[in-house]
TrEMBL record:
<feature type="domain" description="F-box">
    <location>
        <begin position="14"/>
        <end position="61"/>
    </location>
</feature>
<dbReference type="InterPro" id="IPR036047">
    <property type="entry name" value="F-box-like_dom_sf"/>
</dbReference>
<dbReference type="InterPro" id="IPR001810">
    <property type="entry name" value="F-box_dom"/>
</dbReference>
<dbReference type="InterPro" id="IPR032675">
    <property type="entry name" value="LRR_dom_sf"/>
</dbReference>
<dbReference type="InterPro" id="IPR045627">
    <property type="entry name" value="FBXL18_LRR"/>
</dbReference>
<dbReference type="GO" id="GO:0031146">
    <property type="term" value="P:SCF-dependent proteasomal ubiquitin-dependent protein catabolic process"/>
</dbReference>
<dbReference type="GO" id="GO:0019005">
    <property type="term" value="C:SCF ubiquitin ligase complex"/>
</dbReference>
<dbReference type="Pfam" id="PF12937">
    <property type="entry name" value="F-box-like"/>
</dbReference>
<dbReference type="Pfam" id="PF19729">
    <property type="entry name" value="LRR_FBXL18"/>
</dbReference>
<protein>
    <submittedName>
        <fullName>FXL18 protein</fullName>
    </submittedName>
</protein>
<dbReference type="InterPro" id="IPR047948">
    <property type="entry name" value="FBXL18_F-box"/>
</dbReference>
Amino acid sequence: QEVVSEESEEESNGVNLMEFSDEILLHILSYVPCTDLVLNVRRTCRKLATLCLDKSLTHTVLLQKDYKVDKDKVKQLMRDIGKEIYQLNMAGCYWLPTSTIDHVTRCKNLVKLNLSGCHVTSLRLSKMLSTLQHLRSLAIDVNPGFDASQLSSECKATLSRVSELKQTLYTPSYGVVPCCTSLEKLLLYFEILDRSREGFMLSGQLMVGESNVPHYQNLRIFYARLAPGYVNQEVVRLYLAVLSDRTPENLHAFLISAPGSFAETGATKNLLDSMARNVRLDALQLPKAWINGSGLLQHLKFNNPFYFSFSRCTLSGGHLIQRVINGGKDLKSLTSLNLSGCVHCLAPESLFRKAEDDIDSSILESLVVSCCNLRHLNLSAAHHHSSESIGNHLCQLLSRLKHLLSLALPVCSITDVAASVEKPPTTPNLVPQTFGRKVRIGIQTYPKNLGDQANQKIESSVFWALMGSLRFLETLEIIGSSFSSAMPRNEPAIRNSLPPCVRAQSVGDSEVAAISQLTYLQSLTLAQLPNILTGSGLVSIGLQCQHLRTLSLANLGMMGKVVYMSALMDMLKHCKCLRDLRLEQPYFCAGAQFFQALSHCSSLQRLCIVSRSGTLQSDAVMSFMANCLEVIMCHMFMGESLTVCRNLQQSIVRSFQAERPALNVVIFPLLHEDLTEVIRDVPMRHLDEITLFKSRVAEEPPNLWW
């Protein structure tokens, strides 16, 4: 009766969804996961049964973040529309059994296939690829035990037609690269550990019998990202050896992202010299040791560059302007620029300059004028201090970049010069950042009239003006120049952190409140803001930034206690779209009140808490997991005992794994000696996107992979 009354009410109001045109309905249906369309929605009525199978909805199937999909749904999906699928993305579907991949063979017309993060054996890969004769784009993982000799001739025939390959290596191997004789785009991710689980040192030498002749003659894009470790460096050199002999004539993007020191060798020098003579690039990223102290940039030629990364290089602003931006000439094609950790990039020279000295505003102005179409800019991990010259503050100059979608800045760069000079740090900030007495966490108070507070303190500040001018910004990172996470990649947890920059001491609640002007903000990272006293600005963000999906907060305010807990809980009550939350703060108390507030985030999928000497309440965590049905990742690295952590982890898995196939739970003492062994079992999707802290703005060229 209720249904009938609702239908009659709809008819009386003249509103009926089925009366919309097919074009409008197709647009609406495009926001529904394909599994729901095919397995549920199309069974509701005849019209939707037809529309749900429209080619525009079945051409591309994205399962990469459909955490509710299971093996049975995939099997049924492939049965129903397998022949209609041309692009299939299953990246990061770590929870699906290996046998699920067998059903991909039903997709006879596949052109693009992404299986990154899925465990596929050599034999299964061979069987699957043998049936996909139209495949042109492939992404796979190469795990220990992979054997290229098991690939059939039909499989190799398919690989010979593949023009785009993304390969993530967990073992020293060429993978399927030697079989791909028509490669135009090659993306390599090196995730090989230096030690096996048994503690044996691994070698970068490839397996006996593997071909060492990759085919690069048609290559246009070469990208390699290395995780820390010497084995990754040894293996990537083997991939580069062929390039050094003969550089592809059509190469227009050459990118190598390597942490730490990656020394240049004779072979790599020959490769770079050959590139300088024979190619014109549109995208460039090199290890810092290959650029520092060399005249390489002076000889490389560029066509219409869209991406540059000089992360961690000692490149000076003078060289940047003269050799890269051609003396300030037009570079409207450049859309993404990564200068993270490039401490001298805004100074005319680096020889006698200290990292904390003021920047040369004319260099930044030349950059802004020449690269006026920048959409992604990363200036983090450096001290960019503006001078007292009127109108030349870094924030004022960046406000001219009206097309920015993502921006990363160091905390010390956003402070007003007068404020940082005249205003001494408030008393709480005089507490050393590396020490703190464990205190009882109570409900903090903060000003209720947030609008008046913001108007009084920052409407005239340069950072307030910058936020007001970048109305369409989607990603913002404000990170302390000396901040380092307590969870590095392959090392024990860091017990102490460096103190914040002196210029950053005045940055706090009022600056955070300015961020609330970003109506379309989707991702926010705040790390090492020392003058956070109450966190009142967070509430403003929660109220105004209704599109916020990712939030990462680290080391805000005093290190001895969590001064912003009350404001954070108020903020979370308004974050209905929040999907990822990462908190890193010593002495964080993950108790009943916090999880009750977090339960308001109805869309939350992933939670990560990193806290030295932090505590948690097991009952509160279990209640939170029961209330928030979308949560599929819970990572907590706290100060609790190993027994408490293990018991809670087992309870969560036992209670919720059956209903949530993608559930991944890791609860472990932060300072335990076996932390690195635990981390290696975390799915790469979660580890790379949320668990490990890093700056992600302009980390890779835009649209590098689909």
